[in-house]
Amino acid sequence: MQPKVKLRKVEYNCQLEDDSSSNSLFMPTVVIFFIALLLSSSSAHSQWLQDLRGSQYNSLTVQYWKAQEINETATSYKTGTPVTNQAQITFSVDRRQINQSVSQDGVKIESNVFSFNPRKQILSKTLRRSTDGIQWSLEKSVYAYKGDLLGMVNSIKLNGELIYFLMVKNDSLGLPIKVEQRSPDSTLMAIEVGIPDYAHNKIIYKLMDASGRTVSTSEGRIAVKKTGNEKYNLHGDCFLYPRNDTPSDQIFCYVEFDYDSNGNWVKKKIYEGEIDSTKNLIKPQLVMEYKRKIKYIK
């Protein structure tokens, strides 16, 4: 009997949709579970265009009712040796500021503050990170919009001094397709472009240095395309779907859920494997497990 399942947009990109019900306090990318945001001025290997997509607000909250505090434990089995992180999130009264702290093996490694406008678009994030709980790095990013679309991101020191800024260009469908990284005096430092192929649901990312020399190239999906193999539970959550790490990825994710009385998940296990002709996972491998306690506003 297979585990029951569902997924979200996270560490392993096993997701069908970017919906808040499947999100976790641990947001994608990074040293172990977190987004490597806008990095430092030497970010010749980063991919801003991928990081600038998606809703960070939904990634930090729950789908139903208003949470006052969320405590989540995430355990990764991907490397064979289990690695566990703990995250705590608290919300301001107007829910426009979210505080997040992250610990690994009992040692705090992140302390972050996110602020949002009434439309739930991110306005700023202050990231405080450590690898040993002793030495900390600080970075703050401030976001500016042109209408509904992101136009600029300023990376600043906590004293307000500008480190660098990103100029963002979007296509007619709102997809970010170009980022220019510039120094405080507007000197070009790096460029990343995205070349979308909507007909084939693909996008090519090219990272270039200031001279226009290509540093790296990668390929991704514009959107997660349904294959007809997806399965949904009674909560409307997709518990079987393609992993979508790459356009040619054949691995599927199977998610097992437990829910609270408000309809939000409180336990989730994610398995990976190929599927057979009956759409069942072959030799499912547990890769992630999440547990969370949600305190609601009364």
From TrEMBL:
It comes from the Bacteria. Keywords: Membrane, Transmembrane, Transmembrane helix. The chain crosses the membrane at residues 25-44. This is YD repeat-containing protein. It comes from Williamwhitmania taraxaci. The lineage of its organism: Bacteria, Pseudomonadati, Bacteroidota, Bacteroidia, Bacteroidales.
